[in-house]
Amino acid sequence: MNKKLLCAALLAGLGVAQAAAAQDFDDRWYVAGSVGVNFQDTDRGTEDVPFATLGMGKFLNQNWSVDVELNYQNPDKNSDFGAENSGLWWSQYGISADARYHFRNADSKWWPYVRMGLGWQRHEEEFVRDPAFGTPDGGFPMQHEDNNVAVNLGAGLQFDFGRVDMRTEVGTRVDFDDTQGRAAQLQEDYFTDLLASVGVTVALGPEPMAPVAPAPVAPSCADLDDDGDGVNNCDDKCPGSEAGQTIGPDGCPVPVSIDLKGVNFDFDKSTLRPDAVAILNEAIEILKRYPDLKVEVAGHTDSVGTDAYNQGLSERRASAVYDYLTSNGIDAARLVGPNGYGESRPIAPNTNEDGSDNPEGRAQNRRTELNVQN
Asked: The CATH number of the domain where 192 resides is what?
């Protein structure tokens, strides 16, 4: 129980240490060293003793590290196996390969870990045989030397101070020493020592370079459209175009004509013919494609009839187109009119040069137009 309390106090005392600023995973090799107390298995018949370690290691990734470590301790024997053995030494040293799993993330300033490893231990011991278990040897110390496998298990805390890290650790070493300098009746198969230590690791080599962010690449003119007209700056010949204008592939405003050729009316009629409806549907798609476009709806007639009659007929024809547009999703605020121009704006001759009637020309004049206003 006293050993457990001592180890707990050691860890608690070191737990108040303040860690330095956290750093990311550091894959440099490091030198590691520690000092501590080896609480000997009571079946050894040896005194508890200080021990020291020295080794090298490396983090394989953020969580796993590996170390190769030398250890040394030199306990004195006590009188548990005869007063004649008291004060003799038992030198013990070895090497081990250990892996540690660190419960940490990139921002950790301190973190816990567990340790596991396998090693080789060397024992060199002085002893005097008890006459009760064999032939007396005259009281002169004898020597016993042996090698065996050992298993390391432990847990600890690691504190990050940059190049130097601190470790505080408790653990056990299961020492499979099955031959000792004692009578056969007192031989043990293995010993379990408890170890508590404080150590440091010192990273070797220069500080790892922080990743350098690539310099921002200035956008080219092909990636920019300063006036928002849909034409990149490289191709835009008119960089100051305004919203609502119709823009050509060179970035310059272009006149938009909505061709209603074919939206003609029968003689003396203002109702839309089926062929005219198909053309108006195309005009509606154009208007939807350019939502800022405003147009005038204008109606016209041929020259047959009085001026007053033809004026009213042209207005009715313009109204027929106007009503069709608004009933198919075109906002009336985008339409000017409907306006009628009677027979005043022919696009073809109503009569031939000899004064005779020109039915084809009059058919072209019986029309409606969408005149772009912006």
From this structure: 2.40.160.20
